[in-house]
Specification:
The chain has about 130 residues and is mainly alpha-helical. It is built from six helices and no strands. About 80% of the residues lie in helices and about 0% in strands.
């Protein structure tokens, strides 16, 4: 299987699952922001984001104007946020805390539609 199709399926399912978890339990959003003040959680989260970003970039660093750009962007955003959380924890957390719950809800709605788009591209459900 092509790396692009595999990652489109992976990120599509991940984004949909993440959306439904946050939709069914919106208290998780506040809990995530509260947990960012815990240094152990912050270090583990930043390492995980760095690892996921690096793996994604190593397998898929394609700057093509198609769904492949979305997959590459997810990897780079993950790497950048992970590095920022690890190198500059306090300024990054304060920057993330500026986003209120409504802004986060808008973001995860965008992630939901991105997930649907990636799954549609991978499985070819609706021909565009």
């Amino acid at each position: 299987m092509d790396n692009s199709i595999f990652l489109a399926k992976f990120w599509g399912w991940y984004l949909l699952i993440f959306f439904f978890i946050l939709s069914l339990n919106p208290k998780r959003i506040k809990q995530i922001f509260n947990d960012l003040n815990d240094e152990k959680f912050l270090i583990i989260s930043s390492f995980l984001a760095i690892i996921v970003g690096l793996v994604n970039i190593q397998f898929h660093n394609i700057w093509d104007l198609s769904y492949k750009l979305i997959i590459t962007s997810i990897g780079w955003i993950s790497l950048i946020i992970g590095l920022a959380l690890f190198i500059f924890p306090k300024p990054t957390v304060s920057w993330l805390e500026l986003a209120n719950i409504r802004f986060v809800q808008v973001i995860y709605m965008l992630l939901f539609f991105t997930g649907l788009f990636l799954l549609n591209t991978a499985y070819g459900i609706v021909q565009i």
